[in-house]
Amino acid sequence: MSLMSFHNKGETTVTLVRTRLQSDRLLIKGGKIVNDDQSFYADVYLEDGLIKQIGENLIVPGGIKIIDAYGLLVLPGGVDVHTRLQVSVMGMSSADDFHHGTKAALAGGTTMILDHVLPEPGVNLLTAYDQWREAADGKSCCDYSLHIDITRWHESLREELEALVKDKGVNSFQVFMAYKDKYQCTDGQMYEIFSIIRELGAIAQVHAENGDIIDEEQKRLLELGITGPEGHVLSHPEEVETEAVYRAITIAKQANCPLYVTKVMSKGAADTIAHARRKGTVVYGEPLAAGLGTDGSHYWSKNWAKAAAFVTSPPISPDPMTPDHLSSLLASGDLQAVGSAHCTFSTAQKAVGKDNFTLIPEGTNGIEERMTIVWEKCVASGKMDENDFVAVTSTNAAKIFNLYPRKGRVAVGSDADLVIWNPKAASVISAKSHHLNVEYNIFEGTECRGAPTVVISQGRIVLEDGNLFVTPGSGRFVPRKTFPDFVYKRIKARNRLAEIHGVPRGLYDGPVQDGIVSAKAAAPAPSSRITSCPGKISMPPIRNLHQSGFSLSGSQADDHIARRPAQKIMAPPGGRSNITSLS
Amino acid sequence: MSYQGKKSIPHITSDRLLIKGGRIINDDQSFYADLYLEDGLIKQIGENLIVPGGVKTIEANGRMVIPGGIDVNTYLQKPFQGMTSVDDFYQGTKAALAGGTTMIIDHVLPEPGASLLTTFEKWHEAADTKSCCDYSLHVDITSWDDGIREELDMLVQDKGVNSFQVYMAYKDLYQMSDSQLYEAFTFLKGLGAVILVHAENGDLIAQEQKRILEMGITGPEGHALSRPEELEAEAAFRAITIASRINCPVYITKVMSKSAADIITLARKKGPLVFGEPIAASLGTDGTHYWSKNWAKAAAFVTSPPLSPDPTTPDYLNSLLACGDLQVTGSGHCPYSTAQKAVGKDNFTLIPEGVNGIEERMTVVWDKAVATGKMDENQFVAVTSTNAAKIFNLYPRKGRIAVGSDADVVIWDPDKVKTITAKSHKSAVEYNIFEGMECHGSPLVVISQGKIVFEDGNLHVNKGMGRFIPRKPFPEYLYQRVKIRNKVGALQGVSRGMYDGPVYDVPATPKYATPAPSAKSSPSKHQPPPIRNLHQSNFSLSGAQIDDNNPRRTGHRIVAPPGGRSNITSLG
């Protein structure tokens, strides 16, 4: 782009922390810029929280700070699509609030989170939204946006959703198929909610587990005397997740609503999503750092506290092959965005369920480890390249939730949320060194390659040389518009195509059985048969005969042609999907 | 069960019959032999049989001698809004016999809330006085409450019923929630019963019906549009998931679509005990007729789940039937006259549901599956009688030609070509959904209870000659495996010391107090910085954590049912 090299190395030696934080101008030199579509070597100039220039030999003002990124990758900051930093269960708040959580996020290279607002059933969604906004605005250290969970179906839901979409910058809502008698929706309610969501142009998210079966299984296990954390995974078998995913996809397809399955934890659920995508359904799957980085064998640990730390729903699969399978599907594009579902509770909090696994508050860590885990499991293992890595950690999420290209891309005009990534860094995840408020780290001892060396949020350096420079409350709420193109272009086209038509027929004017009459139909005199009918059916005289009583002449001329091509039989693009058909 | 005092069939005075020169077809093999029937039983099989003089002899001339068909799904007494289907037990079983079916299993459909026993007795009585062939009864569970358990127990123990159907469709009428299904399956498994499922997602159907009526679509095509096959597949998937959690066998009635059939196929590969029943209608015709301009014709096809509008479905289902992925064929026979169907002339949701098929079932399967080379004659016997007899615990009394079995035998002519038409069918309904279909293969002689009931196109039947066949619970064919899986799949907890660390006080303030780290006895690798809580291990049992750093312990079972953890839809 620019022709001249114009910067002064002498001025980069500002070392004061305060100066660093306040600096609004940054030049990143010599790095390899990695987007989801390509990688290239270029310098990046940031100003006013935006990316202003990309290229070689940029013309930049003097006296700005220069970051040397030779041999390193410059990535869009991570977008964690799923966090729960403000959850309160049985009066307990999660151990990591917006302050601690976002601090940890930044330390791990994530510069934006999408947190879930979980209203108590019955509470107005707008009230809950305000509550979350207030908490996050005061504490969040990075940009954030909010999903709203629909915890109870009620009459005024449509108005509340509309208000959230139109005025509050929310475009994604989650429904629960689990948590019976608490958050769980019936199929009919889901259909109605999905229909509203589609009309509003939002994304339907679903927690997919069959709550009815889980409830019964929990009862059964407790009766068997199994009270420890292993009861959690035994009562949430993966078939139950798979079943719910299948059902959610069926419902979403009927309602022609885009679906986003949160927390894909098992092979079965992931495969169901992959199959449905192959049949043309607009469905996305979100694996978690926990599902990619560890497995559920720990539920059987003799250390109760350790076992309890892994309790989350759907549970981490006890099948040790699952992480590998999920990362393969992530690499192939069958799953799209990695979240963390970060929602941590201290051991004392978890211990509320020490005699009954159903009382253990659910949630694991992952907000800090997410990027590193994906790099280690997917990129370092050769399953995906650095561009795919960017896609699944930020770009796809930004596209699905309509943040693109503001987030999820290194491009002129995008937010200056960047990560300078060292693919060669090696570290061991441990509760000793993590930035969280919990005693256990479910990835304890995992050796990871790849780590952020510098993290830039809103154009400011927040992580450098292992030191964090964050300010609670500096994170902005990022509103999201409806009808994300990435998702809705297809939905709109299908809406037009999926119109169905009735068959224009003459009025049936034959005899009609009187509801309460005796079993045998009275045989009425055969109505005069229109001779133009080529129907091959001609009855013996004793039987009823009124297969044709049209006043419109000729209406039955084509009666013998079974399939009339002019009539649409609800053929959505992608075809009638037999989700599991052989082939 | 004795049925004395019934008139004997006019032209047959003897209970003794010799079938000479036939080729006997069972599900496992075919062979040439003579067959001697006496007292309603098969007495001898072989060559050069020594039989009493003067017995009536039927020359089979090398034709096939097969076990009489068993139609596992009929509704000959189904009430719908005060109307009863046009074929009652007399009319229906007459048609059955004419088609080579010598036994039916009819569905008892109690009104929701009505006593199962009372309704059962009502059906029993109606069938006893009218049925022309042997019959047995399924009981449909149309509502689930606590009182029902006793009745179910009684039906199984005293009444000879071992199969019950539950509904996932018909919202606010028969539909059961997943919790109820779980409870019902658990209870029925305990009784050793066969669980039948009408698999369609009733919630979504209700929504779609509303939507389609609002769009102004009121004709029979609305029926098909409001019940897309995805909803059938979804429900089948859910039923199988629930059943596999409980480790009980499940039987999907009326498999009408490719998607549902595929779900069953894939599930079977993963281990769950699941069986699928396509019906004559789904094997012989398709749902394009819902779009017929002739309202009466279109309405005649209305049944649930609907016939698939995809014209390649019948072929597909026949292939799965041939390879054993689907096991039995029913008819779902429940026809209504056009006048009755016309109750729904302005609203497709009011059209009474049901199609014919009791008479055509055997012929349709032969024509679509055997005459096309998909299956052989032995498999034909398996899917039309033997498998049904095994599943419902009638084997080997029914479903096999063997000494001691009931003398329900059909002499089958594979070459005879017949055109199905409402003109000549035995049903009382005006429309035949197979109208105009040319079928290869049909029965020449039908023998029920050792008596010739159909010969040369003529029926010789008496009202009420059919017997009720009681069925015992725990059919071996299903429950052998269930019993073993029960043993293998037993769950065990982890034996741990008591957790005696700090416990958060639930109703207290949101932020927890930081307790002093308790004495660590653990060799764990966690060394949190001093500010943090630390109480991950406080066991009184010493040594309990020795293998803590060894995450997967082989000694512990991770619920591994035989057939493996089933990911019903996993690739490969």
From TrEMBL, chain A:
<dbReference type="InterPro" id="IPR032466">
    <property type="entry name" value="Metal_Hydrolase"/>
</dbReference>
<comment type="subunit">
    <text>Homotetramer, and heterotetramer with CRMP1, DPYSL2, DPYSL3 or DPYSL5. Interacts with PLEXA1. Interacts with FLNA.</text>
</comment>
<dbReference type="InterPro" id="IPR050378">
    <property type="entry name" value="Metallo-dep_Hydrolases_sf"/>
</dbReference>
<keyword id="KW-0597">Phosphoprotein</keyword>
<dbReference type="GO" id="GO:0016812">
    <property type="term" value="F:hydrolase activity, acting on carbon-nitrogen (but not peptide) bonds, in cyclic amides"/>
</dbReference>
<dbReference type="GO" id="GO:0005829">
    <property type="term" value="C:cytosol"/>
</dbReference>
<dbReference type="InterPro" id="IPR011778">
    <property type="entry name" value="Hydantoinase/dihydroPyrase"/>
</dbReference>
<feature type="domain" description="Amidohydrolase-related">
    <location>
        <begin position="73"/>
        <end position="462"/>
    </location>
</feature>
<keyword id="KW-0963">Cytoplasm</keyword>
<comment type="function">
    <text>Necessary for signaling by class 3 semaphorins and subsequent remodeling of the cytoskeleton. Plays a role in axon guidance, neuronal growth cone collapse and cell migration.</text>
</comment>
<protein>
    <recommendedName>
        <fullName>Dihydropyrimidinase-related protein 4</fullName>
    </recommendedName>
</protein>
<comment type="similarity">
    <text>Belongs to the metallo-dependent hydrolases superfamily. Hydantoinase/dihydropyrimidinase family.</text>
</comment>
<dbReference type="Pfam" id="PF01979">
    <property type="entry name" value="Amidohydro_1"/>
</dbReference>
<feature type="region of interest" description="Disordered">
    <location>
        <begin position="564"/>
        <end position="583"/>
    </location>
</feature>
<dbReference type="InterPro" id="IPR011059">
    <property type="entry name" value="Metal-dep_hydrolase_composite"/>
</dbReference>
<dbReference type="InterPro" id="IPR006680">
    <property type="entry name" value="Amidohydro-rel"/>
</dbReference>
TrEMBL record, chain B:
<dbReference type="Pfam" id="PF01979">
    <property type="entry name" value="Amidohydro_1"/>
</dbReference>
<protein>
    <recommendedName>
        <fullName>Dihydropyrimidinase-related protein 1</fullName>
    </recommendedName>
</protein>
<keyword id="KW-0963">Cytoplasm</keyword>
<dbReference type="GO" id="GO:0043204">
    <property type="term" value="C:perikaryon"/>
</dbReference>
<comment type="subunit">
    <text>Homotetramer, and heterotetramer with DPYSL2, DPYSL3, DPYSL4 or DPYSL5. Interacts with PLXNA1. Interacts with FLNA (via calponin-homology (CH) domain 1 and filamin repeat 24); the interaction alters FLNA ternary structure and thus promotes FLNA dissociation from F-actin.</text>
</comment>
<keyword id="KW-0944">Nitration</keyword>
<dbReference type="InterPro" id="IPR050378">
    <property type="entry name" value="Metallo-dep_Hydrolases_sf"/>
</dbReference>
<dbReference type="InterPro" id="IPR032466">
    <property type="entry name" value="Metal_Hydrolase"/>
</dbReference>
<dbReference type="InterPro" id="IPR011059">
    <property type="entry name" value="Metal-dep_hydrolase_composite"/>
</dbReference>
<dbReference type="GO" id="GO:0005829">
    <property type="term" value="C:cytosol"/>
</dbReference>
<feature type="compositionally biased region" description="Polar residues">
    <location>
        <begin position="534"/>
        <end position="543"/>
    </location>
</feature>
<keyword id="KW-0206">Cytoskeleton</keyword>
<comment type="subunit">
    <text>Homotetramer, and heterotetramer with CRMP1, DPYSL3, DPYSL4 or DPYSL5. Interacts through its C-terminus with the C-terminus of CYFIP1/SRA1. Interacts with HTR4. Interacts with CLN6. Interacts with MICALL1.</text>
</comment>
<comment type="similarity">
    <text>Belongs to the metallo-dependent hydrolases superfamily. Hydantoinase/dihydropyrimidinase family.</text>
</comment>
<feature type="compositionally biased region" description="Low complexity">
    <location>
        <begin position="510"/>
        <end position="525"/>
    </location>
</feature>
<dbReference type="InterPro" id="IPR006680">
    <property type="entry name" value="Amidohydro-rel"/>
</dbReference>
<keyword id="KW-0597">Phosphoprotein</keyword>
<dbReference type="GO" id="GO:0005813">
    <property type="term" value="C:centrosome"/>
</dbReference>
<dbReference type="GO" id="GO:0016812">
    <property type="term" value="F:hydrolase activity, acting on carbon-nitrogen (but not peptide) bonds, in cyclic amides"/>
</dbReference>
<comment type="function">
    <text>Necessary for signaling by class 3 semaphorins and subsequent remodeling of the cytoskeleton. Plays a role in axon guidance. During the axon guidance process, acts downstream of SEMA3A to promote FLNA dissociation from F-actin which results in the rearrangement of the actin cytoskeleton and the collapse of the growth cone. Involved in invasive growth and cell migration. May participate in cytokinesis.</text>
</comment>
<dbReference type="InterPro" id="IPR011778">
    <property type="entry name" value="Hydantoinase/dihydroPyrase"/>
</dbReference>
<comment type="function">
    <text>Plays a role in neuronal development and polarity, as well as in axon growth and guidance, neuronal growth cone collapse and cell migration. Necessary for signaling by class 3 semaphorins and subsequent remodeling of the cytoskeleton. May play a role in endocytosis.</text>
</comment>
